[in-house]
Amino acid sequence: MLDACVTQGAGLQGLSTQASPRLVVMASHDDRPSELPLLWSLCAAWSELGYFAVVLDATQSESPSNPGLQQLLAPSGRPEDMPHESMDTAWSIYPAAIGLRQLCAASQGQEDTAPFEALEQLFQNYDVVLLYANAGMLATNLPGSHIEPLLAVSTNERSVLTAYQAMKQLLLNGRLQPTIVSMVDASDQNSLAWARNLNKSLQGCAMNFLGQQITTLSVDMRQDDEEAPRDVNRLALRLLENGMPRRPDATMSAWQQAMNDNDIGKRSH
Predict the structure, then answer these.
(1) What is the DSSP string of 35-91?
(2) Rounded CA gap, 269 and 262, in Å?
(3) Domains by residue range for the chain, with CATH
(4) Main-chain phi, psi angles of 50, to 5 degrees
């Protein structure tokens, strides 16, 4: 479970002067029933705290009928002018698979974090940018970028297997350090025991077979704890505090290159 000392007040302290959005990355291992509850809960927590979030879903591709990041990278693209999926939520959702690959290609030879910084510049009117992308895509396109993607795991046996495979991809192919989030029901002792065993097992596998240390967390996903900050709230604040800040020079370079490439691509068709 997340430490209770990570309070809302402590999380908000120091964020008041934040001049750019925070980037949070969640790695998908094709287990949406495990991943989406955590993703939506984090967005809801940020919304309840008064932060505006945008979700870039790089597991889905943009199209003329479903525009997203690719269209936003065009010179005239602005989030406030774009239709977006909201699902009756307080946050915006855009497909982003093509646009993310475009950003990564445009930033080759620059800082490893340039694509993320470009996203933060593009969505500068938001407080949080949550990138949801396949683990293989992150490992292939953003190796060594120093991000620590969240990897959500449920009690489902298949979820554990695919999470381990994704962890290997991130560590070995991408040189990325994931944070394993085991989702539990704290009122169920079996669930807590499962999470402890899983976290120890994944940490042991990462160290013994991959030579890497990983961070693991157990998060209570119950929605009925109203008297104290829930685990998801604490995680949301921790991510705000530790999110990757942008570096303006690298950001503008990658962003401008991506927009130019997108404009050239349009003219060539």
Answers:
(1) HHHHHHHHHHHHHHTT--EEEEETTS--BTTB--HHHHTSTT--GGGS--B-TTSSS
(2) 11
(3) 20-258 (3.40.50.300)
(4) 95, 15
Distance, CA of 122 to CA of 222 (rounded, Å): 34
**Of 155, 239, 168, which Cα lies nearest the Cα of 202?**
168
Residue 267 CB: number of other CB atoms within 10 A? 6
Task: Find residue 22's DSSP bridge partners.
Answer: 128
- Tens place of pLDDT for every residue, the chain, 269 residues? 444 334 444 444 444 445 688 999 999 999 998 899 999 999 999 998 899 999 999 999 999 888 999 999 887 666 666 655 554 567 889 999 999 999 988 877 676 667 877 887 888 889 999 999 999 999 998 888 888 999 999 888 888 889 999 999 999 999 999 999 998 887 778 878 888 888 888 888 888 877 888 889 888 887 665 544 578 999 999 998 876 544 333 333 333 444 344 443 443 44
Number of residues that make up the chain? 269
Which residue, 64, 127, 60, 152, is CA-closest to 100?
60
